[in-house]
Design brief:
The complex is a heterodimer.
Chain A lengths: L1 E6 L14 H25 L14 H20 L18 H23 L11 H11 L2 H24 L11 H21 L3 H30 L3 H6 L12 H26 L10 H29 L8
Helix pairs in contact in A: 1-2, 1-5, 1-6, 1-10, 2-3, 3-4, 3-5, 5-6, 6-7, 6-10, 7-9, 7-10, 9-10
Chain B lengths: L3 E6 L8 H10 L9 E9 L2 E9 L8 H5 L5 E3 L5 E3 L9 H5 L6 E2 L5 E2 L5 H4 L6 H5 L5 E5 L6 H8 L2 E2 L11 E4 L8
Parallel strand pairs in B: 1-10
Antiparallel strand pairs in B: 1-8, 2-3, 4-5, 6-7, 9-10
Classes of the chains: A mainly alpha, B alpha+beta.
């Protein structure tokens, strides 16, 4: 038996780490969602070879929503900073080993490239909405560069999606986060949520159908990686094994994480089932428009994916802080 | 350059907590926050018990994860080899608090991260850290490991010393010597 009494404890680190909270969860979720949308709309715009921009304008709103999503997400991490007034110091240096530094530089870089993307995909007849003549001119110039800009946004979307996971996995003192599977899991769930969001916002039935198909594969990959993530920790050493306990015990006082894991494994397969149903319905090929009921089912499945992604991030952020390397 | 280290002789700690109080007073540590702590670890079944009293603080690691995690270089290695925080540069992202495997840091109510400095303002004046100066049992010993004649050098030559969570690979500069108890850390 070991009994430990400690004099001089800080509430932020004992009995559990209470360092990052819901603000970081929202930042990671919105950051991932934005990353996924950028990648997916770049795929939509790049998949058809060498077409005039106007014909590719089906993904016009996705970059705008991705921009707003990331801008809001970034506000949440600023909200979490203890001294946001000192943020300028983050831009006076770059620390390659600090994932926070990558985020400090990376998020504005993604926002900038995203803004260029927005300007590049705006159709001619919509440019008057930009109002500022400089932006209208810039939009005209960038429209011919849409493909390279889409490629850049694809790469930056992958960076942002994986970054949200690497940020957590870089903390060697937190066993649940400190493994190489987490960035891949976060990337795949970010891509999945991005595809889901595009299904919701797309006006064209063809785009909805395309991303429904893509999302099925992403959900399969995500479920597989979640299983591997837990298996990897289970087969590791004591602190790592202890870190996954809350996810697998209802007697544990943190049984909410077991509920979260069950929710993820209900929501994602249910979404996949709905999507597979849609594919079956259009086995002979897709023609024309969807009915209202079909669109509702597609959007509902996409919402399930978004809910699953959010729960996954929240559970990993909070559960990670329950177990430390040290025994107390 | 000096290489400041602290040696903690766990058998000499009497659990008076004077170090905890002296640190708070010396460094104006805010209410409900601490830069050092004393762990009382009791092992075994009554009446066959053994107890260890152990002081813990920032380890001023040679391979400090907090420095790597810091996006602004607010957490940095000072010229004397200790790990320090530049309060002006700290943005309060708390990444260093998460990165530290020893839970040595906390978030100051003014927003920046804070931790033990080895009382750098005192060692610059040639005075020992407040916790060392006040230690009744002479459990905390501070000095320059580069000086072979220093008390810390002699103790580390004489006794088998250990560090906390050695497997973490952080190469701490706070060493623990104990002759009888084989517990914890």
């Amino acid at each position: 038996m070991t009994e430990i009494t400690i004099t001089g404890l800080n509430a932020i680190t004992h009995p559990y780490l209470e360092v990052w909270d819901w603000r970081i969860v929202i930042y990671l979720f919105l950051g991932g969602l934005s990353a996924g949308m950028l990648v997916m709309c770049s795929i939509a715009n790049l998949r058809i070879p060498k077409q005039p921009v106007d014909e590719l304008a089906q993904c016009v709103r996705a970059p705008i929503i991705a921009f707003i999503t990331l801008a809001i997400g970034a506000q949440f991490i600023i909200l979490d900073l203890g001294k946001p007034q000192s943020l300028i110091w983050g831009y006076l240096t770059f620390q390659p080993l600090s994932l926070m530094s990558w985020g400090t530089w990376g998020v504005p870089a993604v926002l900038f490239a995203n803004a260029l993307y927005i300007l590049a995909v705006i159709p001619k007849d919509q440019r008057y909405r930009l109002k500022v003549p400089f932006l209208v001119n810039l939009s005209e110039k960038l429209s011919s560069k849409m493909r390279p800009i889409a490629k850049l946004n694809f790469a930056l979307g992958i960076f942002l999606g994986i970054y949200t996971g690497v940020l957590l996995s870089s903390f060697s003192s937190i066993p649940l986060w400190n493994n190489a599977t987490l960035p891949i899991l976060f990337l795949v769930s970010a891509l999945s949520s991005g595809a889901a969001m595009i299904v919701i916002i797309a006006k064209k039935a063809e785009i909805k159908f395309l991303f429904t198909k893509i999302d099925i594969w992403l959900i399969v990959a995500e479920l597989l990686i979640i299983a591997l993530f837990f298996y990897g920790l289970y087969t590791s050493t004591a602190p790592y094994k202890k870190a996954i306990e809350p996810f697998f015990s209802f007697t544990n006082e943190q049984f909410i994480f077991a509920v979260a894991l069950i929710a993820i494994f209900l929501l994602l397969p249910l979404a996949m089932r709905l999507k597979l149903g849609e594919l079956k319905e259009f086995k002979g090929g897709f023609h024309g428009e969807f009915t209202k009921s079909q669109i509702f089912r597609m959007n509902f499945a996409a919402l399930l994916v978004l809910a699953g992604t959010f729960i996954l991030r929240a559970a990993i952020v909070y559960a990670g802080q329950l177990t430390k390397l040290s025994p107390y | 350059m000096p290489k400041y280290v602290m040696v903690i002789d766990v058998e000499k700690c009497i659990g008076c907590m004077a170090c905890v109080i002296a640190c708070k007073k010396e460094n104006n540590v805010p209410d409900q926050h601490y830069r050092t702590r004393v762990v009382e670890e009791v092992r075994g079944q009554f009446p066959h018990l053994r107890m260890e009293l152990r002081s813990e603080l920032c380890n001023h690691c040679e391979n400090a994860p907090c420095i790597d995690a810091c996006p602004t270089r607010a957490s940095h290695r000072a010229k004397d080899g200790t790990v320090q925080i530049d309060r002006k540069k700290c943005i309060g992202c708390k990444a260093c608090i998460l990165a530290c495997p020893y839970d040595a840091r906390y978030s100051h109510p003014k927003g920046f991260a804070d931790k033990c400095t080895f009382c750098d303002h005192r060692i610059k004046e040639g005075i020992k850290p407040a916790c060392v100066e006040t230690c009744l049992g002479k459990s905390r010993i501070f000095g320059d490991l580069e000086d072979p004649k220093s008390e810390v050098s002699e103790l580390l030559r004489k006794y088998d010393a250990s560090v906390r969570l050695e497997f973490a690979g952080t190469r701490p500069r706070v060493f623990y010597i104990k002759k009888k108890f084989a517990g914890g850390l």
